[in-house]
Amino acid sequence: MIETQISIPTLTTARLILRAPRYEDYPAFEAFLASDRARFVGGPGLDAKASWRAFTHVAGLWVLRPPSSFIITLKGSDTPLGLAGPWFPHNWPEPELGWSLWTDTHVGTGIAFEAATAARDYAFSGAGWTTAVSYIDPANKRSIALAERLGATLDAGAPSPDGTDLVYRHPAPGTLQ
Fold it and tell me: Which residues pair with 17 in a beta bridge?
């Protein structure tokens, strides 16, 4: 028998805990994918099989090609608010920094920025990444604004996984402001 042991860090910010995905997070993720909030990530309306596959894809990358995304929670609460983190799926041209908030409750509060900043810092310093991009649907104005707030710039010459997303390149380590 082959045993695989992994260590998934927990990141802490002023207001947040970013932690490993858990089975108990799936209902909130499934509800997100069924909602209009998921329109830029394959939803809404994914069936249960596709939703589960998407969730296990995020969790499984921690084993097969770490790092992967963290679940975002507020300090003092274990309620999952969304995902943020570095991940590098098999068919992606480059490592990506992604984020999503699963409900409207915390939109505009800086939670996504705080989580994405912590995840980016982990990718560069904790995981040893030297580059990161964010693949963003051109109609996703909120994510474009967040990428720019994070210091990322449009890289029009970079390929995206589906050929239609914009590619925002994050500043290299040592150049983050």
Answer: 12, 73
pTM, two decimals, is: 0.93
Residue 38 has pLDDT above 90, yes or no: no
Identify residue 114 by its one-letter amino acid code: E
The alpha carbon of 46 is separated from its chain's Cα centroid by a whole number of angstroms, namely 19
**How far is 61 from 67, CA to CA, in rounded Å?**
7
Please give the pLDDT value at position 81.
97
Q: What is d(CA 138, CA 144) in angstroms, rounded to the nearest whole number?
A: 8
Domain annotation for the chain: domains and CATH numbers: 11-129 (3.40.630.30)
Instruction: Give all strands (DSSP E) within the chain, no chain letters.
Output: 11-12, 16-19, 70-74, 82-87, 96-101, 133-136, 153-154, 166-169
